[in-house]
Amino acid sequence: MVSVQRTPTLSYVVLPEGARRGSVFTVHETGAPGPPKPRLLDRVRAALRIRHYSRRTEKAYVAWILRYILFHGKRHPVEMGAPELSRFLSSLAVDRKVAASTQNQALSALLFLYREVLEIDLPWLDDVVRAKRPQRLPIVLTREEVRAALQPLEGVPRLMAHLLYGAGLRLLECCRLRVQDVDFASNQIVVRTGKGEKDRVIMLPAVVKADLARHLEGVREQHGRDLQYGAGWVELPNALGRKYPNAGREWMWQWVFPATRLYVDRDTRQRRRHHLHESVLQRVVKGAVRRAGIAKRATPHTLRHSFATHLLEDGYDIRTVQELLGHRDVTTTQIYTHVLNRGPAGVRSPADRLFNA
């Protein structure tokens, strides 16, 4: 007797000549095989890239969708609905105790999955309640605290920290600066594709101008050595590399703050140099604040908050500060008015008037 091992969607058996009893054979399809259907997460990645979402957003969305599927025992999202989504989000808040912003990011990922990838129009998605983010005042350093934290820094971290405080850059905006973005003649820096895919122009602080110029001379020498060893490539935005195949080795496209090591791109096999990883400056700033004895949970982004607050203290118009920071709405910038000395700290306590009279 010949036993047949059947698999789903397979329909007939081809027995070779001289088959023995007990032999196991695979069942074959009668129809012509079609192209393999992309896996769900690959479809999610493709949909995100078509809409020009950032790589960080792509990574986060894919991770949340995978966690959602694993949370429900690897069930396909098509088989699930509002109860499963609510249970997952509730578990994040109750069991994992995540922040409201994290819970909203998970919800955004799942909304994208159902609406843009699976193309399922489910009315219950409109009724899902997003967690309300609490209003938090930003941590701001005084001018003396900024000086105490930044003065001991040296080298590349010193330059980057001064740009964060002196120009109000976000951490990744600083890491992703390219040589052509720094205009020494006009004392300006162009921030390309910042948050919200917006470009903006900011000032180049005079205090770092000479040091930054010397730093770029060293970077140019390093780039020249990379070219001699067959490297010198850099990642280009969008499809610019296909339009200009050699642009990735040009000086103007190089990172202002390149990484110390080369890597080989898996698609192009080019030997490239990435920009300095943001965790380098995060560690340096955290250590500098601790050594300065500052009792505040300061990060590199705190320097941006301090930049905005100190400009408002100097009397600059809030619209000017909004433009420099790249905020879409002025209400985002207005939060810095709550930490000015003209707020509660500018009001004299009645106890001071009573006991110091």
Give the count of helical stretches: 14
CATH topology of the largest domain: hpI Integrase, Chain A
- Using DSSP, what is the number of strands? 8
| Biggest sheet details | 3 strands, mixed
Helix content: 40-55%
Mean pLDDT level: 84
Global structural class: mainly alpha
Name the CATH architecture of the largest domain.
Answer: Orthogonal Bundle
Number of domains: 3
What are the secondary-structure elements, in order, as H or E?
EEEHHHHHHHEEEHHEEHHHHH
CATH H-level superfamily of the largest domain: Intergrase catalytic core
Low-confidence stretches: 1-32
Q: In order across it, which strands form the biggest sheet? A: 1-3-2
Give the class-level CATH name of the largest domain: Mainly Alpha
- Distance between the ends: 110 Å
Strand percentage, roughly? Answer: 5-15%
Structure description:
The chain is mostly helical. The chain folds into three domains: 1-30, no CATH class; 40-127, DNA polymerase, domain 1; 143-338, Orthogonal Bundle (hpI Integrase, Chain A), CATH 1.10.443.10. 44% of the residues lie in helices and 9% in strands. It contains 14 helices and eight strands. It has helices spanning 40-50, 55-71, 82-94, 100-117, 143-150, 155-167, 171-175, 206-228, 240-243, 278-291, 300-313, 318-325, 330-333, 350-355; strands at residues 3-5, 12-13, 24-28, 182-183, 188-191, 200-203, 258-264, 271-275. The strands form three sheets. Strands 1-3-2 form a three-stranded mixed beta sheet, with no helix packed on it. Strands 4-5-6 form a three-stranded antiparallel beta sheet. The chain has a two-stranded antiparallel ribbon with strand order 7-8. The N and C termini lie far apart (110 Å).
